């Protein structure tokens, strides 16, 4: 097996939402993926902690990208989320978040992945488990 790709050789996310939020792809390959986000005021809710939707986006992206095939041109394939279950465990309001995901089982089109989201201080913020379906996107999409 090849080692996961590490920055700066990581392919671009090719995802405008992740780019807009400042979520960076840190590593991807061999059924694993990691995304990072430096918490900014725009990521916080009214209580001053990271908005649940931002947490969900990080976990969804990490799980989804973990199962993406690498195309011959070096670009990542595509998938859609079929199901995602999230457990919110603690708050985060400052620092760097890191979502790490691993594919636990994969078939021809469906794969299953789990992820953890932790703050750089080592506190586990949330976990997720999901089911994803590989998809084929045409050039016209």
From TrEMBL:
The keyword Hydrolase applies. The keyword Magnesium does not apply. Keywords: Hydrolase, Plasmid. Residues 48-122 form the Thioesterase domain. It holds the Pfam family 4HBT. GO terms for molecular function: fatty acyl-CoA hydrolase activity. Belongs to the thioesterase PaaI family. NCBIfam families: unchar_dom_1 (TIGR00369). This is ABC transporter substrate-binding protein.
